[in-house]
Design goal:
Elements (H helix, E strand, L loop, with lengths): L1 H22 L4 H13 L7 H12 L4 H9 L1
Helix pairs in contact: 1-3
């Protein structure tokens, strides 16, 4: 189970990094629409590169036990 958890966690971090690179080529108009939409919903929005760095930092601290205990609640 721990191996599966690690594989999925690594895939999420990799996908986030790829998305950050893709969004470097996104028009500013689309970026503003995305931010305004999320702001309207009350979501906190980060620049994708910042979000990717945050996810990478947090991913190193998350354990299978924490995920399992959250799921059990």
């Amino acid at each position: 189970m721990k191996l599966v958890f690690t594989i999925h966690k690594d895939a999420i971090v990799k996908d986030s990094t790829i998305l950050a690179r893709v969004l470097d080529n996104t028009s500013s108009h689309d970026a503003v629409k995305f931010i305004m939409y999320n702001d309207t919903l009350g979501h906190t929005t980060m620049e994708q590169r910042e979000a990717d760095e945050s996810l990478a930092a947090v991913a190193t601290t998350i354990t299978l036990e924490e995920v399992t205990s959250k799921r059990a609640k």
